[in-house]
């Protein structure tokens, strides 16, 4: 029974996330009351899954892999360039709410690094110039 309950909860959280881009405190209070579960449990679920956000995110969520295999292929340089280009640190969103930048441990494309995703679309075999071109072409 617990697994079914968790599945329904995660589906509800996904629906909120997909609609608003993040899960607000008001959403957490409402779900807590409707499902009769502690807010602490909801925060635990939300913080466990990296695809849930408690703050508004940018239109484009950029994830850059910094695993060992990507680091060997210069992901650190790519990360530094994007920090400068976007004027944000890891986990931050640009002031215009266009970009959220996240440095992650692995994107599952270890032989294709460095790798980044933008809203789930994979970009591999990157260098700084190619990454900046991709970012500059986003509307």
From TrEMBL:
Residues 61-112 form the VHS domain. InterPro entries: NADP_DH_HndA-like, NuoE-like, NuoE_dom, NuoE_N, Thioredoxin-like_sf, VHS_dom. The keyword Cell cycle does not apply. This is NADH-quinone oxidoreductase subunit E. Its cofactor is [2Fe-2S] cluster. SUPFAM superfamilies: Thioredoxin-like. [2Fe-2S] cluster binds at residues 65, 70, 106, 110. It comes from Geotoga petraea. PROSITE patterns: COMPLEX1_24K, VHS. Binds 1 [2Fe-2S] cluster. GO terms for molecular function: 2 iron, 2 sulfur cluster binding; metal ion binding; oxidoreductase activity; phosphatidylinositol binding; ubiquitin binding. Belongs to the complex I 24 kDa subunit family. Keywords: 2Fe-2S, Iron, Iron-sulfur, Metal-binding.
